[in-house]
Amino acid sequence: MKDFCIASPHKNVLWYDYRLYINLKEALTALGYQYRAASKNRIYFLGGPQRHFYPEVGKFDPSANNIALIYCHAEKLDNIKRFDKVFVCSEGVKLFLEQKRTQAEFKTSKQIDIIRPFSSLSPSNRTRPRYQCDVSFIGTPRVRPIVEAVLPIVEQNNLKFNIYGPNWDHYEGNPLAKSYWVARTVPYEEIPMLAKGSKICLIDHHNMMNKMGTVSHKYVDFVMAGAFVISDWNKDALGHYSGVCFENEDSLANIVQKYLGSDMQRIEQQRKQQEITQLQTTKGVAETLAEQFI
User: Fold this and answer.
1) What is the span of the domain harbouring residue 28?
2) pLDDT averaged over 10-residue windows placed end to end, the chain, 294 residues
3) Where in the numbering of this chain does the Spore protein YkvP/CgeB glycosyl transferase-like domain appear (predicted)?
């Protein structure tokens, strides 16, 4: 039986990216592969520079079968040539890395392939009272342009807005945000309930993700959970996912008004995006990665 291990900086529940580690580990185990610390088959989740040491993996071993799965912050990477196989999350990231091949650390003769953000979620027919609202946002309380943009719209139109995430009582942006804080967390398995109960789910990205063109795993999680998603202006969301994106507060106001006023248009958009993402399952990604095992 082949075994594997995962090098991830996020191995505790405080990080949303922790779910990538848990979900992929469970999917590969379900396929019959054994998780073993320091295995020769090593999957590196890269959302920035590679670390010198990872729990359950150890230091980088050039004699191992090292597989890079680059899922965000490609601009912070400092080396990809040491990996036996490199996967990226979008065409934009692939183009970015291919343009860097003139640099020694990025020279690689191996083909860079795409594994898009993946999810273990599917739509639910159930929800909970705390998830029923017009607009919702889930995330940590760094100053969020998407929250800053929607707050005046919420106030002017008397919308029910729910914010989920830790420590929003310490939010340093618009102080009104604190009054819409509902809960410290939404369990991963309940995201489909939030997607069912919230008419609009807001998703944002780091600026470089928007510029480079790559959506987050959270974006795909919500789409596959059945949410109607509005995101910031992201080339990948627009190009590959046929997403609804806004550029400024005025455009967001128009979008919110349009889709809150039409259940049918929301449903059509949800169905279109779910069709696009239907193959982006954790199980499918596990099968693709397992093909690289030795």
Assistant:
1) 3-118+280-290
2) 90 75 96 98 92 94 97 91 96 94 81 96 98 98 97 98 97 98 96 99 96 96 99 98 98 98 98 98 98 98
3) 153-278
